[in-house]
Amino acid sequence: MYCPQCGHQTDGGKFCEKCGAPQPGQGGAGQMQGQGAQAGAAAKQASKQFALFVLDVLKKPYQTCKTTGGEQLVSSIINMVLFCLVPPIMLYILLSDGFRDVSFTAVVIKPALTFALCVFCLYLLIFIALKAGGAQVSFKDSLSRFGAFLIPFTAILLLALIFMLLHTTVCFTILVVGLLGAAFAVPPLMLASYQHQLTAKADITYFVIVIYLIICVTFQFTIKHYIKELMNYFFF
């Protein structure tokens, strides 16, 4: 066969002996197909691992989460992304019923990013509390465990989304339970899961109280900010 790049006669190797160009069926497209197959297999494996992990957490939330480590980081991050996307999507569906021109970027993307920042700040508060309490915990392991503890509340938010699509008002009650439950249940659960590592004299209760105060102040300013943003967006 001849090299399509320089016309040199080759013996059928992967590359031309003269110019080094990949030969048809050997490099180039064949290599890209191999890489695509590997990426597809990796994505399939990750989705399977995520599904199995979610099922394990939903069956035994605390027992599974307290043993979760860095090996579940990808699954935990996927869950945190879902957690941050569901409320803005519900808001988008709600506003789309009453307003014709609703910006997906303004109503979903920007709030989701802000929500993600708030969730990450909540994790940082817990991580700081763990370090202040003397726990020898890594950033990766604690972040994975934090995402695992959010799984039941993500399931609640998805349930609220389903009820919204069914046009039932109970969806808002379920949404509040999911959001407030995550904000006020995850911190003590996280600290309790590392209780055997806490060596500081300060009781774990005081760490939780401080985190709750910060959460309440953040909620107050965030709600005021987005109410003003929505009013400006739709009425001005």
UniProtKB/TrEMBL annotation:
Q: Which UniProt keywords apply?
A: Membrane, Transmembrane, Transmembrane helix
Lineage from the top down? Bacteria, Bacillati, Bacillota, Bacilli, Bacillales
What superkingdom heads the lineage?
Bacteria
Transmembrane feature ranges? 73-95, 107-130, 142-166, 172-192, 204-223
What's the protein here called?
Answer: Permease
